[in-house]
Amino acid sequence: MSESLITITEADLSRGDHGTAILDLLNGYAMDPFGDGQPLSEATRRDLIPGLRQHPTTRIFLAYRGGEPVGLAICFLGFSTFAARPLLNIHDYFVAPSSRGTGVGRLLMAAVEQRARELGCCKLTLEVLENNHRARGVYAAAGFAQATYIPEAGGALFLSKLL
């Protein structure tokens, strides 16, 4: 299918159709082996859109093929203290399996990057599972690499502590 049939829009969380698209796509991501391997809980489905609406730095991008939502990027603005400028973190990034390899991922990433530039961001950040080779290929093609600030210190690692 032609990339000309793919459109990217920044989501409006007051629109029910955008909320439904976000929940459906995120649920697809959650069920993916590189997601959580299981569907979103009822509590998450109930609380996600209101929570995203209340979070002041939320930026969400939806990819459509025709009228069907096929891609999602949930992002949050952060801040780089060393650059004294905002950054945009891509927290969730998903392309429906039926649309992989059709240019959706590339167009979605380009829209995120364009918006980050418009917001004056100094960089885009994201995390990816080490063995998610397909996603890593998409990210590498878009110019992402492991962050290295001082070569002698090695590459940056993403760490997490559940609370």
Protein traits:
Aminopeptidase, 5-stranded mixed sheet, 163 residues, alpha+beta, single chain
Please write out the topology.
Blueprint: E1 6-10, H1 16-31, H2 42-54, E2 58-65, E3 68-80, E4 85-95, H3 104-118, E5 124-126, H4 133-141
Parallel strand pairs: 4-5
Antiparallel strand pairs: 1-2, 2-3, 3-4
Task: Provide an overview of this structure.
With 163 residues, this protein is of the alpha+beta class. It has a single domain, classed as Gcn5-related N-acetyltransferase (GNAT) (Aminopeptidase, 3-Layer(aba) Sandwich). The chain is 33% helix and 25% strand. It has helices spanning 16-31, 42-54, 104-118, 133-141; strands at 6-10, 58-65, 68-80, 85-95, 124-126. It has a five-stranded mixed sheet with strand order 1-2-3-4-5, sandwiched between helices. The longest helix is centred in the N-terminal third of the chain and has 16 residues, at 16-31. The N and C termini lie far apart (44 Å). The mean pLDDT is 95.
